[in-house]
Amino acid sequence: MSKQNFPIELFVYLAQLKRVALGRYLFLPFLYVSFLLASSVRILLKQVNVMKKFLVTTAALAAFASPAVALEYVCDVRGNGESFISSVVALQFEPGARTGLVYDGIIDLVHGAPIEVKLNDRGNGRYRMTYRVSNIPATSGPVTVIYTLNLDTEKNTVVIRGSIPGYSNMIGGKGTCKKG
Known about the structure:
By secondary structure, this protein is α+β, with helices and mostly antiparallel strands. The chain has three helices and eight strands. Helix content is 33%, strand content 38%.
């Protein structure tokens, strides 16, 4: 090993060893091994720091590489007289995802929080969402409604249709949306 490849700390260590009068040759191998261990620990710590930086950078790149940004819409809906269509519907989804979230007055009454919906991207800024809300309070007893919501993000419009299993009547409404 040439002098240029030796770490400067080893030369300092060796210079200090020359000052030790008693047993300098006996302690030399011990101190050399301890120096190598200290150097190894220092190298390992540097590698850990490099690994941390790599992981942080990879996570940041993964976050920025993902083009999906959640879209949020708040829609004012005018029902066609039925009580199972809320006047305000809030939507949240990521383009290209298979699910999203929906929240309205009926969902708030039954669940108290947004629920997950199946999302279908129909192209040209049009999305179809389907979801089911069970145990809606009604005079005849709890009702289940299966909703289909069609959102056009280019025209900022929404059309909601609902069906009640076991009944032939359909419910629905139309409205306008604002990007939130």
